[in-house]
Design brief:
The chain is built from 11 helices and no strands. It has about 270 residues and is mainly alpha-helical.
C-alpha cells in the first residue's frame, strides 16, 4: 500500500455523558448556572407589613396604630367627606337635584386629578368617585335627593354580614387585619383567648356599622324633611366614627403582656419530700 493510500486515523468517538449517579447535572437555580442562588423568600414580618398596608392599616414605629394614616391621611378623610358635604350644601342652597349631583361628582373628580398630579395611588380616589357616581345615578333616576345615600346602606349591610360570618367561622376580620399588623400572622388562631379578643374587636366594628343604619335609615324614610339630618349624620358617622371604632377595636384586642415576675423567673422544679 502506498503512502497516499494510507488510511486516515479513525475519528475519536464522542465522550458519552457520565452515568455516574454522583455527578449532578446543573439545573435552573443551581449555583453552577445561578451564582447568586435563588432569591430569598420574604419573611413573615414583611408579608404581614405588606398585607396590613394593602388593607389600609398603618402603625407607628413603637407599634401603636397610626389612626390618621390608616384613615388615608387628611386628604383621604377629605375625599370621604367633601363630596357628600358639597351635595348637602348645594342642594340646601339651590334645591336643584341635578346641580347638586354635578357638584358632588365634580368634588370627587377633583381628588382624582389631585392624586394624578401628586402621583399617588388612585385606588381610594377611584373608589370614591365610583361610589359618588352610583349614588348620583340612583338619585337622578328616582328624582329623590335622599336616594343619594341609599348605596351606603347596602354597603354597610354587606360589611355587617361579612364580619358576622367571619366571627361565626372563627376567622374574625379584626384578627386578619390587626394580627398581621402586629406580626402575629395567623398564630393568634391557635390561642382561644386571642380568638375571643379579635371576635370582640370585630363586634365593635359591626356595632359602628349597625349604628349607622339604626340612625340613618329612619331619617331616609322621612323624605325631604329628614334629608338635612340624614346628610349631617352621614358626615358625622362616616370617617370620624369609623376611625373611632377601629381605634377602640385595636385597644381591646391588644395582647396582654405577661407579668414581669412570671416571665423573668424560671419555674422551680417540684421537690419531693425525703
Amino acid at each position: 500500500m502506498t503512502e497516499s493510500e494510507t488510511p486516515s486515523p479513525a475519528p475519536k468517538p464522542q465522550q458519552e455523558p457520565s452515568q455516574d449517579p454522583t455527578v449532578l447535572t446543573p439545573v435552573s437555580g443551581d449555583p453552577a448556572r445561578d451564582p447568586e442562588g435563588p432569591s430569598p423568600k420574604p419573611t413573615v414580618a414583611a408579608l404581614a407589613e405588606g398585607y396590613a398596608a394593602k388593607a389600609g392599616l398603618h402603625r407607628h414605629s413603637d407599634g401603636r396604630i397610626n389612626v390618621l394614616k390608616t384613615a388615608g391621611g387628611a386628604q383621604g378623610i377629605a375625599e370621604s367627606i367633601l363630596p357628600g358635604l358639597v351635595f348637602l350644601v348645594t342642594f340646601t342652597v339651590t334645591a336643584n337635584l341635578t346641580v347638586s349631583l354635578v357638584a358632588a361628582l365634580s368634588a370627587a373628580a377633583l381628588f382624582t386629578v389631585a392624586r394624578l398630579i401628586q402621583r399617588r395611588p388612585l385606588t381610594q380616589a377611584f373608589a370614591g368617585i365610583v361610589g359618588v357616581a352610583i349614588s348620583a345615578w340612583l338619585a337622578n333616576t328616582t328624582g329623590k335627593a335622599e336616594d343619594f345615600y341609599v348605596p351606603g346602606f347596602f354597603t354597610n349591610a354587606a360589611y355587617i354580614v361579612a364580619m358576622i360570618i367571619s366571627i361565626a367561622v372563627k376567622w374574625p376580620v379584626a384578627g386578619l387585619l390587626f394580627g398581621f399588623i402586629r406580626n402575629e400572622g395567623l398564630d393568634w388562631r391557635k390561642d382561644p383567648v386571642r380568638v375571643r379578643a379579635y371576635s370582640l374587636g370585630t363586634w365593635v366594628i359591626v356595632a359602628v356599622l349597625a349604628l349607622r343604619l339604626l340612625v340613618q335609615v329612619p331619617l331616609y324614610f322621612m323624605g325631604d324633611e329628614g334629608l338635612a339630618a340624614l346628610a349631617t349624620m352621614r358626615l358625622i358617622m362616616g370617617a370620624p366614627l369609623y376611625i373611632l371604632g377601629i381605634w377602640v377595636a385595636w385597644l381591646i384586642t391588644k395582647p396582654v403582656p405577661l407579668p414581669e415576675a412570671e416571665s423573668a423567673q424560671p419555674s422551680k422544679p417540684s421537690s419531693s419530700g425525703a
